[in-house]
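hey so i finally got around to running both of the ones u sent me last week. sorry it took forever, my laptop kept dying halfway thru and i had to restart like 3 times lol. anyway pasting them below in the order u listed, first the sequence line then the structure token line for each. didnt double check formatting much so if smth looks off just lmk and ill redo it

first one:
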Amino acid sequence: MTVNHRAEAEKHLAMAARHLTEVPADMRIAEVSAVIGQGYAALALNDQPSGDGWAPTPATQSDEPWDDPWATAPDIATDIPEPVRRILAEHLAEMLLDPTATDVQKWARDITFELKREGIDLTPDIEKRITDLTLGTDPPF
């Protein structure tokens, strides 16, 4: 059995519109129908062109890379001057180790994660500073 994804999408989206306009109390039914219709519409993008000349949009056939919101940001920490990285790491490490202020620890984590999300991963610098503060500096070998 073959499914015409385009027809199914149109059917479910029309049902969603009908429930939304005719019976506003059926908002949940309209929402579910819209989601199902969107799913079929996404599947229809992969279908072959039909007799009426419909085909996926050129944007879906592009070979250009697209921005993936879940992709990791490139690490640009090395672009930041070493003294700035050191100062940030020192202060964030001290904030994370502060035994009295849980808000300060939360701020330090939030700042660290925001920087990392933007591609500035200071985690190794912070870990080294925490080690230096808790165990002392590495002895020369």
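and the second one:
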Amino acid sequence: MIEKKIIVFLTLIMFFLLFQSCKPKTISKENIIREISTNQKTDSITSNIYSKKIIKQLIDLEKIDSLQFLSEKNKVISSKVNTVKLTDISEVKKLLNGIIEFGNNDEETYVPRPIRKIKFRNGKIITNKEGLINDCSFIAYFPDEDIILLKNPAEGDESLNLKNGKETEETGNPNLFSYSLKKKYRLNGYINGQGTCFYFLQKKVNNEYEKIISLSDEIERLQNHWIFHISESFWVNENTFYIKETEMGTGNNYFKIKIIE
């Protein structure tokens, strides 16, 4: 009899414990408010950090009219630099002997003035089998910059810096160079082979120009407008310049641009 009572007693205890474990926890109003407040603060901090990354501007951009463009242009002395450009392939072959190996006459039947191999001054080597210079034709060599300019089958620019091996996106087309008054910055770009150009800004660091701003992307972000072709540009000081864009079929656009330092 005693054993039955013990069994019943233990069974009741087990049911009681089971009931307590299933009982929902009571959350106070204060705890709810505290948790919501903490989450809001976290979201706010994350949002602010993200926003700062998004809204950080690299340039000040102002769309102007042709009268303002011409007025400012008439006030400045041209800072255009005449870049030495060599197009005679015989002369270039002599100057770059041991650096560039040009293709033979058989290859020139389908690719004018091809390049077979380049050995950069830093030791890097590329060949036409790697795709970078495959089917590209020699256009010009710029000895002051040590840049070789090529044309790809899509009529787009391909350029290579023979000193460091940097490619088109960082080397650009020397024909498009436009320097600030003291040559701290320069506007650069290249033809992408799709009827438009891509532009970027470089800064002189340790006597070499390094890409710092994708100008085409910045203008598109700030103005929702893609720059097709800059037909004219000039600098008024070391960080402010003006551009005239010629857009196919729609006329010209004019912009004042200031680099934010």
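quick thing i noticed on the 2nd:
Helices lie at 2-22, 29-55, 66-73, 89-95, 168-171, 215-223.
anyway thats it, ttyl
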